[in-house]
Amino acid sequence: MDMAPPASPNMVRAPEAKGIRQNFVETLIFKGIASPLALVLVVVQSRYLHTSGRGSYVLVILSVTILTRLLGQLGYAVTNRAQKQDAQLRPLVQASFAIGIVLGLLGTAAIIAWGAASADIGLKVSAIAAAALIPQVVWQGVCGVLLGLNRVRLWNVIQTLPPVLTLVGVIVLVIGLKEGVTGAVLAWTLAHVLTALFALAATRFVWVPMPWRKMLDLFNVPLAELALTMGAVQVVNLIAYRAELLVLNHYRSVNEVGVYSISVQTAEMMWLIAGSLATAMTAPCLHESEDEASKLVRKSAAKTLIYTAGVALLVGAFVPYAFGPLLGSSFDGAATPLRLLLPGVTIYAPVTIFVVYLSVRHGRPHLSLAVSVVGLIATVIAALLLIPDYGPSGAALASTIGYVVGAVLAWLFFERLRREKTAAVPAAPEPAAAPS
Q1: Final residue of a structural domain among 228, 250, 274
Q2: Are 15 and 83 found together in one domain?
Q3: What angle, 0 to 180 degrees and rounded to 10, lies between the N-to-C axes of helices 17-71 and 180-202?
């Protein structure tokens, strides 16, 4: 039943609070399945690819991931345009596919050229990885449309498929057939191709029939500009979350980077709460009135902050004592950086909620981009000042400073835009007086 299309995709009613809670819990469950699988995948790859193979795999996957982050927001741009302009959904989805394919082909060529010029990757591996770019852009774009339609369960299924299919592929190609790095990258690419095919089949009601022969005519420049601006936010975020690692590696050693990365991965797992709640409230935020939408965003941001703070207290109290027994005594040093990261990760968690309001509802991705850029600048400056003397602890403190600065700016942008939009809504007319 969940796979059946709604009678009118452009006339979706926002769910009540019960529906938001249900979507939130379902998303947490699905993410709770995907996250351990991703961890198992890392362990398997590390054991069978060894250090050099794992390094090559990470480098080539990162190159595709950066371009996917840039192009993968097409679905959210479609959702914004369909809601803001009351436009038909199907032409916008078809235009997003055209944009993703045209720009994806350019990105695919760039990845292959870069990989061919790299001695650590090579033409064959880079070509296999590059083949995953367009499928990723397609299924992530579909996911953005699904959130606008409040099809959260189908969204969760699609999001969970890549790690599941990749793990199966790695077991077959790497462990079974001993294909090494080539097999690992091929498993990853096939997982995204199959995910894209499933996503297209499950959402054919919003894009079929597709006029493939008029692909270039479908290219929508304003939609592409909005999606690329949203994507730039994701790219800057990706860099901002890792900027202090580069500074730490420069001033200290790769060993300290390895210790600190454990702290970062542990702390950032708490953002699963914020991501799940943002997924659950996206459709209501789009379809409610301005006043109700802003109230929902405030309430969701407060809940995110409270839930994340509660988890942070538990993580800070118990998890650091598990690093040594689980990972070895060399990782005991991850405890202090983790505790320093927790306040910043907690305060930054509601930013995910604000981005839905700023970028998706009102099409102001430049505000979200400003939050990411300012946070990045604050992180880098603090890292340059603190890391030389304090190492991983300085990196953690620098990250926390960047998170706090970005979170405060996001809250200010939300409040300013909320007042602006609320003031622009005309007041309801006074009811006519009853005749005497």
Answers
A1: 228
A2: yes
A3: 130
380-416 pLDDT, tens digit per residue, is 999 999 999 999 999 999 999 999 999 999 999 999 9
pTM score? 0.69
Nearest to 73 by CA among 280, 281, 274, 226: 226
**Can you tell me whether residue 53 is helix, strand or coil?**
helix
Q: Give the contacts of 105 (CB within 8 A, at least 6 positions apart).
A: 134
Q: Are residues 169 and 250 in the same domain?
A: no
Q: How far apart are CA 158 and CA 135, in angstroms?
A: 12
Task: Answer yes or no: do 68 and 158 share one domain.
Answer: yes
Q: Which of 335, 348, 330, 353 is nearest to 399 (CA)?
A: 348
Output the pLDDT for position 188.
94
Residues in the chain: 436
Q: Could you tell me where the beta strands, DSSP code E, fall in 69-171?
A: none
170 in a domain, yes or no? yes
Judged by DSSP in three states, 408 sits in helix
Q: What is the CA radius of gyration of the chain?
A: 23
pLDDT in tens, 50-84: 656 766 777 788 788 888 988 888 888 888 888 76
- Report which DSSP code applies to 175: I
Give residue-wise pLDDT tens across range 339-389.
Answer: 999 999 999 999 999 988 998 888 888 888 899 889 999 999 999 999 999
* CA pair distance 138, 249, nearest whole angstrom: 35
